[in-house]
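Might you be able to check the backbone structure tokens below? Thank you kindly.
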Amino acid sequence: MPSEQYVKAPQSPRVIVAAVIIAAGQVLACQRSAPPEAAGKWEFPGGKVEPGETDQQALARECVEELGIAVRVGARVGPDVPLAHGRAVLRVYAVDVLDDGVPAALEHSALRWLAADQLDSVPWLPADVPIVAELPGLLA
């Protein structure tokens, strides 16, 4: 009788979403406070898509949690960025701040608005670098 073999089904990569928030020709950059290997680097705000959430729902939730603002999620910015050796993927969306909200650094060390000529003035996390390359056209 042949022995049974169980093969683990491949998992879909974990989806991480991030927001490109543009106001007055500048984009919001957020400085990480943790974990230690990322502290001091800059990123676009966002986080993990939880089971049962769409990308848009997760990003709206993350903007409330990290920045204290309500947003409307718009179009994708840039391509999917593979993370964690293919175990995760970063998807970035343009978002509009609603109700005249003002972002606050609730989970970051600092926030900074950057114009196109200032994009290289901060050390970006590697995953965000391909998205930064997409921004000059959006900040014009």
